[in-house]
Amino acid sequence: MLIYNPLKTNHKNEVLNKPLFLFLISVFLFLIGTSSFADTEKQQRAVDSLAQKLPKRLMTIVDKTLDDQFAEIERSLSELPEISRKEVFLITLPLENYIEDIYFPANRPAVIYPRTIFLILYEEINKENSKKKIAQHLVELQQRNEFEKITRRKAKKDE
């Protein structure tokens, strides 16, 4: 009775050189690992590219400007293949409403940081937090003026 042995290479029952076999397996695993690393790097480049298209800082007293900027952030996020339009649709609305209710009635200009908001949204969506939780987190960051602090820290880090 013949039993198949994957370590046998031909009809003469020669055994495959085990160190060579292990080397080939390790090369295969390395190639798989580097391809996923390349995918992650490519994904990060796409995120950075979209973020760079957004302004670092925007000051406005006009509702429409604020609305357009938040829509642009959502649109940019939905351009990423791993994020659907449904995941980001109106996710910035609570933040927009907060800014309009607090700043505009007092005739104070609102300062937002679209690039930072985009990056925070990207991170939070990848953590698979709920839309409601993410939206509330954005409002809390605005209340504590964290967007400016995060933007400054990132600028120092990039220098």
Give descriptors for this structure.
159 residues; mainly alpha; two-stranded antiparallel sheet; 2 strands; elongated
Describe this structure in words.
The chain is mainly alpha-helical and 159 residues long. The protein has two domains: 16-52; 54-158, no CATH class. It has seven helices and two strands. A two-stranded antiparallel ribbon has the order 1-2. The model has no long low-confidence stretch (mean pLDDT 85).
- Give me the secondary-structure category: mainly alpha
For the biggest sheet, the summary is: 2 strands, antiparallel
Portion in beta strands: under 5%
Arithmetic mean of pLDDT: 85
Question: Which residues form runs of ≥5 with pLDDT under 50?
Answer: none
Order of the strands making up the biggest sheet: 1-2
Helical fraction: 55-70%
Round the Cα radius of gyration to an integer and report it. Answer: 25 Å
The tally of beta strands, per DSSP, is 2
- Which of globular, elongated, flat, extended, rod-shaped describes the shape? elongated
In whole angstroms, how far apart are the ends? 71 Å
Total number of helices: 7
H-E string? HEHHHEHHH
Number of domains: 2
